[in-house]
Structure formats: C-alpha cells, structure tokens
Design a protein that fits this description.
230 residues, alpha/beta, Rossmann fold, five-stranded parallel β-sheet, 31% helix, binds NADP nicotinamide-adenine-dinucleotide phosphate
C-alpha cells in the first residue's frame, strides 16, 4: 500500500519537499494550499486549494482520502492550520511531521526592535518611522492604517482589490526571493527609514534585513504567533 501523504504547503520549503516526495514511488502525494495568492505555484502531485473547514473538516478529509501521513510545511505565521493539523492527526492517530523554518540570526549592525504582535508593531512604526517599508503581507495591514503617522511603502504579492485605508501609502508588488541589490534599491528609492517585517525566517526574504543593516535602517520584527517554534 502506498504512503499517502498530505503536504500542507504555501511555502518555499513545501515546494522543495513536494518535488522530492513526487519522485518517491512509495509515496502518493496531495499538496494543499490556502490559495492566498492569485498565481498558484507549479507543484507536482495532486494539488488542492482552499480551507478544509476547520480541524473537523481536515479530519474528515484525512479519513476520506485514507491519508497515512501529514507533513505541515506551512508558514510560521499560519498558526491556525498547524493547530488544526495537530488536532486532526491526533484524533485519527496519523503521524504528523512539522517542517520548522529556522529564525533569522542577528548580525552586528542590526538594529532590531521586537513587537509582540501587529498592533504593537503599528504603534512602534508610528513612533519610530517617517517612511516605513511594510512587508507583513496583505492580512494584517489594518492596525498600521489606523495609526496613520508615517508614509508607508507596502509590498504585496498581488495588487489590492480594494483601498487599504492608508492616508499615504505607495504599493510595490513583488514576490520573493529578493536580492540584496533589489532590496537596497527599493529602500533607497523610497528613502525608507524603518522596515517592518514578520519574523518569518528563511532565506527567501532575508535580503531585506541585510539591506536594512547596510543602510543603517532599524527594523521592527513581529514575533511568531504563540505555539510557533522559536
Ligand atoms: P492560518 O491562519 O493558519 O489559516 C487560516 C485558514 O486558512 C485555515 O484555518 C485553513 O482554513 C486555511 N488554510 C491555511 N493554510 C492552508 C493550507 N495549506 N491548505 C488548506 N487550507 C489552509 O494561515 P493564513 O490565514 O493563510 O495566514 C496567516 C499568516 O501566515 C499571514 O501572516 C500570512 O501572510 C502568512 N502566510 C501564509 C501562507 C499560506 O500559504 N497560508 C503563506 C505565506 C505566509 P480551514 O480552517 O477552512 O481549513
């Protein structure tokens, strides 16, 4: 009987892992994506897109598909799906493997300030920055819009469908990996004096931290949600 694997993805790590699993003849692979971005990545195996309907929906999916193993390679900030995977796998006695993304390491010259959550990061941005590069994704922008204050440069993967509610903001579109050269150019172009980022870790989006170090720009890093690996 094949090992029927559900790979919870949406990350570079999941994409790389899917390619390794796809060439293993003992594995039948289903990759699951939340569908947060318009352009779906080209992945091997069967790809399904969209939520399961909570932990119970995921449990029903695992049972109906006869999944024998789940690999959670989701983003460090995607806490809900990870919690649901833990609950559903525990309920059915299915092994669950978590792919942990290492945290970024601080280097000499880094001027990092830690925020416990997005609300705190928004308050810090309003206090510390005048031209703030926001790289937190499209989900958690509301607290920054509410605080007003600085001019924002907001990097998104897809163009927003509606107004983001900021008084002054420029939108730049881009999807990692980013190079140091491009990150430095972006920060210089907008005279960025503060960077805000999730503490996502991983190499694909690390160049912005090196660019900030190089340009002596402070960084507000939002801690990973509770329950995520430190
Ligand atoms: P989340 O809060 O963990 O997930 C919310 C819901 O989305 C889940 O309950 C689940 O819906 C669905 N979902 C998430 N990942 C899924 C997957 N791989 N397959 C199927 N359904 C999935 O995560 P999020 O709302 O997507 O994102 C939270 C944070 O993570 C944001 O800061 C975002 O920028 C960051 N992030 C997420 C992804 C991603 O692919 N999800 C990628 C990069 C960054 P049901 O409850 O209906 O099953």
């Amino acid at each position: 009987m094949p090992d029927k694997v559900l790979l919870l993805g949406g990350t570079l790590e999941a994409a790389l892992l899917s390619r390794r699993l796809a060439v293993d003849p003992s594995v039948e692979l289903i990759v699951s994506l939340a569908g947060r971005v318009a352009a779906l990545p080209d992945l091997p195996g069967r790809v399904r897109v969209g939520g399961f309907g909570g932990a119970e929906g995921l449990r029903d999916f695992l049972r109906a598909e006869g999944i024998t193993r789940v690999i959670d390679a989701t983003h460090p900030f995607a806490a809900a799906i990870s919690a649901h995977a833990a609950q559903a796998c525990a309920a059915l006695g299915i092994p669950l493997q978590r792919v942990e993304r290492p945290q970024w390491c601080r280097h000499p010259g880094d001027r990092w300030h830690w925020a416990d959550d997005m609300g705190m990061a928004a308050r810090m941005a309003a206090a510390l920055g005048r031209r703030v590069l926001l790289t937190v994704g499209k989900g958690p922008l509301a607290p920054f819009a509410r605080h007003g204050g600085p001019d924002y440069v907001i990097r998104l993967i897809d163009p927003p469908k509606a107004s983001l509610g900021f008084r002054r903001a420029a939108i730049v579109l881009g999807r990692g990996p980013f190079t140091l050269k491009d990150e430095v150019a972006l920060m210089r172009r907008f005279s960025v004096d503060l960077l805000v980022s999730k503490a996502s870790g991983g190499p694909a989006t690390e160049a912005k931290l090196a660019a900030a170090r190089m340009l002596d720009v402070p960084v507000v890093l939002v801690k990973r949600p509770l329950g995520a690996a430190e």
